[in-house]
Amino acid sequence: MWSKETTALLHPNSSQLERRRQSCRQCTKSAGLVLLAVLVCSGVVVCMLHTSLNAANTNRHRLNSTAVGRFLHITDMHVDPGYKPGSTIYSQCHRYPPHTANSAATMSDGHKHTGRFGIPLAKCDSPIALINATSKYLQSNWADKLDFVIWTGDSGRHDGDPEQPRTFDQIIAGNNIAVHALQSVFGDSIPVVPNIGNNDISPHNELAAPGHKTARKTFEQLSHAWQNLVPKDQLRTFLYGGYFAKDVVDYDSPRAGESTGITALSLNTIYWYRANAKVGGCRAKDSPGLAQLAWIRYQMRRARARNRDLILLGHVLPNRDNYRPTCYHGYARTVTQVVPAPALRNASDESVIADESDMPVVHAQLFGHSNVDVWAFVGQEAKWISSLDPLGLGDQQNGSMGDNRLWWERQVDEETGRFGKMIRNIWEATSPDTTSPSDFYADERLWENMEDDPPVQFSASESSAEIVPISETTSNISAPQRLPSDFVETLLKEYKQVLVKGPESQQNLGVTTISPSIVPKYVPAFRIFHYLRKRPESSKQRWWQLPLGTLLDYDVYWADIARLNKLKQNPTKFFTKLYRFSDVYKLDDLSLDSYLKWAEKLLSSKSLRKKFRSLTYLGT
Fold it and tell me: How does DSSP classify residue 270?
């Protein structure tokens, strides 16, 4: 049975909805007070991080410009309706100690038993009280200030309690609760873009190829749980592969030739994930991972034709430890290329040619899963990414024919072959009831025998971390896993490799960012990003030369639940600002050039590296 809080969240009555509307109106009227609170809070953070107050005020003034838009990145809610305050950690926060029948006798023992809003640095998931508090805070402070929301998956609880095995119905219930929590804040007026995590499927990490009955069930049930969050014209694509595209914002008054808005691509990273033993790598022509790479290229070409920029979002961060080798290098090659714009067919079968700019269309790559606050480069392996045959396919599949394109890239660009058929019958289909895509499904009897990646050897200079092979057997138990103790040191080594290789290698780079999680693996947290939505009025103003859609800054908000659990009454302000990127690192924006400068600063300053380590784990 669910708690009263769960039922109220899923089924708000009319009086609750009216209170939400009144709260939103009061929030708008009291904008000055909210701004004052933010200023005071920011001042405290600035002092704590030893930054300049004047510089912080300058950054704040610029970011308050009407030229700047904002969006929320929230991830890894891991909703657990069975969480019990006062329960033991070793029971996954599901059962009280044997000597007591209720939580009252154990609440004072914060080190062994859990509090109302969860417990930091433990392997328990998020109680309903934490989800409600997060929703209430967003409604009071951000409901009328955001343009869109990025939600990168893992809303189901972990399957870490052998006495209460997780079911697929419970995963869907967790997604239902998360959807209602977000829609109660943002309604239908602010686009929310969902995503599949490795704990939104059952068993965790395991997702069969498109067409298999378990994959079909997963995508169908998630589409129902997410209600109208997947656009109708993308539903057929989602039901096939678990990925989709969604327009999230139109820019204010773009100049001639400039991009007109942002489209978000929600990726299914489980088809590239090493831990998914149900599919192979991105080598075989019927690989679901390769099909998704082809879909990304198709969407990049479509974005060029429509004159739009892209934000890519997924759950598992792309790197050589997380992805199968051919999938990682295929991903890096795809997202760092400048893809030529095609002629876009419209309803009257006429052609519309977009501006032939050399600007890449991918402005951001946002991920979750790791629960930390960090970023990484993608595409630094220059000799792999620039190769004409990085997937090792060779001439047997028309590897390259003099124009630097692979066989599957050519099929996408020219809309021929297998991927040309997929464009016409799936990716461009506007209804799930059109021509059956069964020709593109792998035979259910053969899905376990898909061709896997060939062995890949990296030299010492190319590899900063050992690639761990997939185990032949996978565990049925999932739980939040701590990152390796040398995680930050590994990142710093990768930053150094990028800088040592120089400008020629840096041309193939992209930047991926991981936002911290709501589940208190460390502490609950989320990011608010600021981006350039409108051209500044004067060419003398900062950011005049930046393309529209460029990320400018971000704020990290966190909840000190160890303190909040001790309060007898509901807290008036659940989240507070931990830091602002520009205040700490003294950079003007989040462009690739700024990240390269950031990497140089980190490698040259011991004190900055110490601060970077602390903020990676949210000060814990």
Answer: G
Residue from 238, 244, 194 nearest 216 by CA: 238
Q: Where are the beta strands (DSSP E) in 399-468?
A: none
Six-digit token pair at 362?
């991918």
* φ, ψ (nearest 5 deg) of residue 514: -110, 125
Task: Yes or no: say if 264 and 248 are a contact pair by the CB < 8 Å rule.
Answer: yes
Burial class of 551 by CB neighbour count within 10 A (0 to 12, 13 to 18, 19+): buried
Residue 475: name the closest of 93, 165, 122 by CA.
165
Cis peptide before 203, with omega less than 30 degrees from 0?
Answer: yes
The predicted-structure confidence for 252-284, as pLDDT tens digits, reads as follows 877 777 788 999 999 999 999 999 999 999 988
From 212, 188, 186, 185, select the one nearest 201 (Cα to Cα): 212
Q: Residue 289: which of 313, 302, 273 has the closest Cα?
A: 273
Distance CA 534, CA 521 (A): 37
SS3 496: helix
Coil, strand, or helix at residue 69?
strand
Residue 560 region, left (φ>0) first, then alpha (ψ -120 to 50), else beta? Answer: beta
Query: How many CB atoms neighbour CB 227 within 10 A?
Result: 14
* Neighbouring C-beta atoms of residue 365, cutoff 10 Å: 23
DSSP 160: -
C-beta of residue 555 within 8 angstroms of C-beta of residue 580: yes
| β pairing state of 576-580 and 510-514 | unpaired
The residues, ordered by sequence, that sit 6+ positions from 545 with a Cβ below 8 Å of its Cβ are none
Given a contact cutoff of 8 angstroms between Cβ atoms, the answer to whether 230 and 264 are in contact is: no
Nearest to 265 by CA among 453, 458, 427, 491: 427
31-48 vs 53-63: helix axis angle to the nearest 10?
140
Report helix, strand or coil for 408: helix
C-alpha to C-alpha distances, 399 to 336, 393, 402, 403, 405, nearest whole angstrom: 19, 6, 10, 11, 8
- In angstroms and rounded to an integer, the radius of gyration of the C-alpha atoms of the chain is 24
* Cβ density class 444-468: b for 16+ within 10 Å, e for less: eeebeebebbeebeeeeeeebbebe
pLDDT tens-digit map of 479-536: 444 455 577 888 888 899 888 877 766 777 889 999 999 999 999 999 999 999 988 7
Per-residue exposure over 183-217, b if at least 16 CB sit within 10 Å of its own CB, e if not? bbbbeeebbbbbbbbbbbbbbbbbbbbbbbebbee
Does pTM surpass 0.85? no
How far apart CA 518 and CA 466 sit, in angstroms, is: 30
528: DSSP letter: E
H runs (alpha helix) in 372-502: 382-385, 407-414, 417-422, 487-501
Per the CB < 8 A criterion, the answer to whether 274 and 470 are in contact is: yes
* Residue 532: how many other CB atoms lie within 10 Å: 22
Tokens (6 digits) for 248: 């999230």
Question: What is the amino acid identity at position 490?
Answer: T
Percent helix, strand and coil across the chain, each to the nearest 5 = 35, 15, 50
